[in-house]
């Protein structure tokens, strides 16, 4: 039932110089196209290695951005793209905070990774996001616990451009075969659920809530 759009199948990003791995990624790209729900393969930086047609359709209306396109780096997209909230429902609380928590873990594990440090600098340049990262995030993690931080199994809101879905929810399913894991990649799929309220207007009829500066405004306070 996923709303499919035309377009070229995405080509795999450069893999390690290993013909076997490259061939596997080519075949995995073909397999991914058969999945009806938005699905992507990322590395530990959230650089996008592969996407399928359902993923590209979900984010097709995103305006251009020099560093934060959804099929380039999904972490940067979630945090920094001004249109992210038009697709990622309840954007700040349900998407940004879990991604910031994932980023904090990645920085701890890969402290010298140049690209992760670049994202860290961009967070620091936004005073509100920096406050959320340094002060609000630890409180939020304590409040929601390990289950609230985990991507696999999380149910999060989406605003799908296909009016048959409209405002709905998706369950994040993380399912990574051994061959991808050995390459340092992970796969996430957004399993769409039945719409939970009347379908949203098509993207061209929506009012885009674009933010000129700070993208993360609210950090929920933990319950006492």
For this entry, give a set of tags.
alpha+beta; 7 helices; five-stranded antiparallel sheet; 224 residues
In terms of structural class, how would the helical and strand content be classed? alpha+beta
Q: What percentage of the residues does DSSP assign to strands (E)?
A: 5-15%
Order of helices and strands: HEEHHHHHEEHE
Radius of gyration in whole Å, from Cα? Answer: 17 Å
Taking pLDDT < 50 over at least 5 consecutive residues as the criterion, the unreliable ranges are 1-12, 205-214, 218-224
What does this structure look like?
- The protein has 224 residues and is of the alpha+beta class.
- It contains seven helices and five strands; from the N terminus they run αββαααααββαβ.
- The protein has helices spanning 19-33, 53-58, 74-80, 91-109, 114-125, 127-149, 178-182; strands spanning 39-42, 48-51, 155-159, 167-174, 186-192.
- Strand 1 (39-42) and strand 2 (48-51) form a beta hairpin.
- The longest helix is centred in the middle third of the chain and has 23 residues, at 127-149.
- Mean pLDDT is 85; it is low at 1-12, 205-214 and 218-224.
